[in-house]
Design goal:
This is dITP/XTP pyrophosphatase. It catalyses: XTP + H2O = XMP + diphosphate + H(+); dITP + H2O = dIMP + diphosphate + H(+); ITP + H2O = IMP + diphosphate + H(+). This protein has 209 residues and is of the alpha/beta class. It is built from 5 helices and 6 strands. 29% of the residues lie in helices and 22% in strands. It has a 6-stranded mixed beta sheet. A hairpin with a 5-residue loop joins β4 and β5.
C-alpha cells in the first residue's frame, strides 16, 4: 500500500494565496491542516524539469526538505498535439512579455495568439486536439514520494470565447462540450478539470478505504 499522509500538517509548495485556498478547501474534509511554503519563508525552487512530473517533484521535495513536513505541489499546463506537446511545462512562459512587447508581466491573449499562429502555419486541416495536464506530487522529508496525474482532453478554438476562465481557458473546448472552459461556470469547470482528475486520484489513494 502507498504511504499515506493521514491527518495533520501538510505544506503546500506554493507562494500563491489563491492556490493555497483552493487546495485547503479540497483537503478540509480529511482533517488536513495546510500551510504554504511562502508562509514558512521557504524559497521557490527554480523549475528546471523537462516535464510536469519532474517540476512537481522538484517543488514538493524542496518544500519537504526545507520544512521537515510532508509536502504537496502541483505542476500543470497545456499540451497541443500538433505542436508536439508544447507549450507544456512552458505554458506560463509563453505569456511572458519580452522587452519589446510592453510592460513586464503575463499576457495570456498573446500566449493564445502564439499557439494559434503556430497552428495556422500548418494549414486549415491542422489537428486541433489539446489537453490540460495536472501533476500532483507528494514528498516526505525522508525522500519517499507519490505522484498523481490528471488530464482534461479537448480541442482548441479561435477566436477566444468567454470571460470566466484564465490562462488558455478561452480557447480550450473540453471533450464532449461546445463551450470553452472560460464560458463554463467555475464550479462546473472545476469538477471536470485536469486538477479535479488528479485530486480524485490522490483522495482515492490517500484517504480511501
Amino acid at each position: 500500500m502507498t504511504r499515506r499522509i493521514g491527518s495533520g500538517k501538510l505544506v503546500i509548495a506554493t507562494h500563491n494565496a489563491g492556490k493555497l485556498k483552493e487546495i485547503q478547501a479540497l483537503l478540509a474534509p480529511y482533517g488536513v491542516e495546510c500551510l504554504s511554503a511562502g508562509s514558512l519563508g521557504l524559497p521557490e525552487p527554480e523549475e528546471t524539469g523537462t516535464n510536469f512530473v519532474e517540476n512537481a517533484l522538484l517543488k514538493a521535495r524542496a518544500a519537504a526538505e526545507g520544512s521537515g513536513i510532508v509536502s504537496l505541489s502541483d505542476d500543470s499546463g497545456l499540451s497541443v498535439a500538433a505542436l508536439d506537446g508544447r507549450p507544456g511545462v512552458y505554458t506560463a512562459d509563453w505569456a511572458e512579455r519580452q522587452w519589446f512587447e510592453g510592460e513586464p508581466g503575463r499576457d495570456w491573449y498573446m500566449a493564445m495568439g502564439k499557439v494559434e499562429g503556430l497552428l495556422a502555419q500548418q494549414g486549415p486541416d491542422v489537428n486541433r486536439s489539446a489537453s490540460f495536464h495536472c501533476v500532483l506530487a507528494l514528498a516526505w522529508p525522508d525522500g519517499e514520494h507519490a505522484v498523481y496525474e490528471g488530464v482534461a482532453p479537448g480541442s482548441l478554438t479561435w477566436p477566444p470565447r468567454g470571460e470566466m476562465g484564465f490562462g488558455y481557458d478561452p480557447v480550450f473546448v473540453p471533450e464532449n462540450h461546445e463551450q470553452t472552459f472560460a464560458e463554463l461556470e467555475p464550479e462546473y469547470k472545476s469538477g471536470i478539470s485536469h486538477r479535479a482528475d488528479a485530486f480524485a486520484k490522490l483522495v482515492a489513494e490517500q484517504f480511501g478505504e
